[in-house]
Amino acid sequence: MSCDMYGDLDTILSNSSSELRSVICNNETFLDSCLDACEQEDCNDSGDSTLDIVYTVVIQVLVFLLVFGLAGSVGVYIGLLSQFILMPLIGFLVVAMFQTQLEPLYAVSLLIICASPGGSYSNWWCNLVNLDLALSVAMTTVSTICSAFMLPVNVIIYVELGYKKLDPDNAQEIIDLLPYTTIAYTLANVIVAVTTGLYFGYKFPARMKTVNLIGTCAGFLSIILGVVASSTSCAEPWNQDAVVYYGTLLPVVLGIVLAMGFATLARLPQPQRGAVSIETAYQNTGISLAVALSLGPKGRAAAIIPVAYGAWEAVVFGIYALMCWYIGWTLSPPEEKLWVILVNSYQDRIETDPRYNGGSVVKAADSKAVVTRVQAE
């Protein structure tokens, strides 16, 4: 409903018969719909441009610090196929499944998340439970840099072309709103952060603990910013339809399961299978969040999508990482207790791990270089 339909209600009533006036004035559903429509339009039109600028600047700073602080290592490049083809396709299929339930702006936000690999906390999870850290940081680095080309390509394929086929009535309006400039400078921000983070880690390895802490704090602050921004929008962040929550969970779970299947078929060593699974499904929610925060009150409502996706990442990857430890897919000794492996690094076991003989994608020399830096930190 549009508020304009009811803006001249007095004129309608004055030109109506007494019976019709009685019906309209006593119809609570009609009057409530009128009020809701007007309040929604007032909310959408009352954007504070200064607040939008503040949100945009703050999220760019936090995205830079997050990626810079957690990009201190390098390894062998692998997994681009699953990150740039598998995850965007999963996102599109989920959106197609719930197209009648997801708001168009929410759907587009989810598509952008699934097209944005390079979530830096994936390295933290792999390091925490001693999956293959060298492979993890390599995939984060390469996928982030390749995003300069692949993210716009996937946005065109799945948003401009795909979503337009799914929802031709609303898609064009959302596509016209997409701030490609914001996407471009957020992507450039991430690439610069990765590059400088790698250089800083190479030149000042002893200071990387402090830098990692800054990156971790920036990640938590970006989540808080998303919650606050969503709270100041036209929609309450925690009073959404259930599809918002299970719709953001599905890509995380499907990404892990399918990537684990492909890595197993490729006969990768188990620590690498775990790392590939986490890297594939762990997305850079900062890009989608930056887009949402640049679109005023209506766009800020969609900030709940990257916030919910990030929350599910924390829960699902925590469970998955513990599962990898439990079934013996990590580099830690199988007889060690959980609390012991969480506070110790066993990355140097790659050279002697029999699972890496003959089929290792990350060679021992490459892993040793990463392990040396991690231990120096």
Describe the protein.
Keywords: Membrane, Transmembrane, Transmembrane helix. InterPro entries: BilAc:Na_symport/Acr3 (IPR002657), Bilac:Na_transpt (IPR004710), Na+/solute_symporter_sf (IPR038770). It comes from Hondaea fermentalgiana. It is a multi-pass membrane protein. This is Ileal sodium/bile acid cotransporter. This protein is mainly α and 377 residues long. The protein folds into two domains: 1-46, no CATH class; 49-376, Na+/H+ antiporter like fold, CATH 1.20.1530.20. Helix content is 73%, strand content 0%. The protein has 18 helices and no strands. The protein has helices spanning 9-14, 18-25, 28-45, 49-69, 80-97, 104-114, 121-129, 133-166, 168-177, 180-203, 208-231, 242-265, 270-281, 285-293, 296-301, 304-326, 338-342, 364-376. Helix 4 (49-69) packs antiparallel against helix 14 (285-293), helix 7 packs across helix 8 (133-166) and helix 13 (270-281) runs antiparallel to helix 16 (304-326). The longest helix is centred in the middle third of the chain and has 34 residues, at 133-166. The radius of gyration is 24 Å and the shape is globular. 45% of the residues are buried. Mean pLDDT is 74; it is low at 70-77 and 358-377.
